[in-house]
Amino acid sequence: MPPRYLSFRCSLPWLILLLQALILIRSLLSLPALGSTYHLPLSGFPGVDHIYQPSSSYPEFQDVNHIVIFGFGFFLMVLRRYGFSSTAFNFLLVVLGVQCSVLVGDLLTELVFLSFFSCSLAKAMVGTTAVVISTGAVLGKANPGQLIVMTLVEIIIFNVSRYINWRFLQVPESLTLMHVHLFGAYFGLAVTSRFPEPPPGLDKHRSTPKSDLLSMLGTVFVWVFWPSFNSTLAEFQREAKLNTYLALAVSAVAAFMLSALTSKDGKFRMAHIHSAVLAGGVTISYTAHRIHYPWIAMILGLLGSGITVLGSHCLQRCFNPALKLQDTSGVHFTFGLPAVLGAVAAVVLRVVEEGTETQWNDLSSLGYLIFVEVGAFCQTISIALITGLITGLILNIKLLKAVHVSKYFDDQFYWEVSFKMVSH
């Protein structure tokens, strides 16, 4: 067995064991029993009822669980020789990340005296989506140890970013979680920019019809359950589900149309469909519960699909080399740009709503609301980029045994793979 394989085997299991032990010890010291969490009457304490009462039912949590584990697990299977790692590492990071997210939320709850976070599995699962999105950017280049460290750092920073939005900008707690797409995409892009670029002759990052088909299966699965993702923590769940579905439907139709229009031979491209059909759900995530007219949701779905397809067709060649973006699975165009568009749409919708209600008389109040929307967006993306760059530098230290560029995008470095699968 080569030395790198031996050192990898001797370090990773102990890292996982140490992390799980720390989580277990922390949970013994901090988390209350399930019975006290859900059945203890807390009505006598101001501000506590809405914190510890479950905000979503189990079926809705189950939908989110399916999205993050099954849907994204197959969504990331875009590389022809990295299928085992794509699905299995995603599962490992999710189950570790959810535990960490619950405990980080509980720690922040203690620090702010029961006034912000709650020990909710639904919120923890939604927050872990940021890690899954970031993993798509570094897919095939980071080893499991690096991915675990990235998960821990990202969950902590994302929750701190949520707290800043809630505490200083007065953003509702449920909406702070909807910045998960924006944070995950740009955190991952910043991390992957610190990794060495693969050599020009390396072709293992290409896809095959089989990997494209499995990845599209995950995309369809995420598409089906995405309305639950946007509505599970929303105040008006019925409106959120309806608007999200309409946006997704229009973005899927537009994806096929724009794919045929932008390709040279007029054929559909699976890469376009794979990315653009989800763009509508990402774009409307900030405003799904506030939209009262279906045509607004449909327009947002169309714009989201358009920015995804046209962005990957036109901007990728310009921005990726200049900014050193190595976006393996296209999270920038699937989640990043649609999230930016959704933030702009939230500002516009806020201006229209408040302007109509106040007849433009109280401009100071309107300006403050716009400042809050823009401030939350700028704060989220700034922290994601800055901490992502720092995290990328940390992941490349010798202690974490970074993978050599010749071993990128290859299952054989981590898994027992048959000769037939390797040759394929």
From TrEMBL:
It comes from the Eukaryota. It is a multi-pass membrane protein. GO terms for cellular component: plasma membrane. GO terms for biological process: ammonium homeostasis. Its main location: membrane. GO terms for molecular function: ammonium channel activity. The keyword Nuclease does not apply. The chain crosses the membrane at residues 91-114, 120-140, 147-164, 176-192, 213-230, 242-261, 273-289, 295-319, 331-349, 369-397. It is found in: Membrane. InterPro entries: Ammonium/urea_transptr, NH4_transpt_AmtB-like_dom, RhesusRHD. Residues 57-399 form the Ammonium transporter AmtB-like domain. Keywords: Membrane, Transmembrane, Transmembrane helix. The keyword Phosphoprotein does not apply. Belongs to the ammonium transporter (TC 2.A.49) family. Rh subfamily. This is RHL protein. The gene is Rhl.
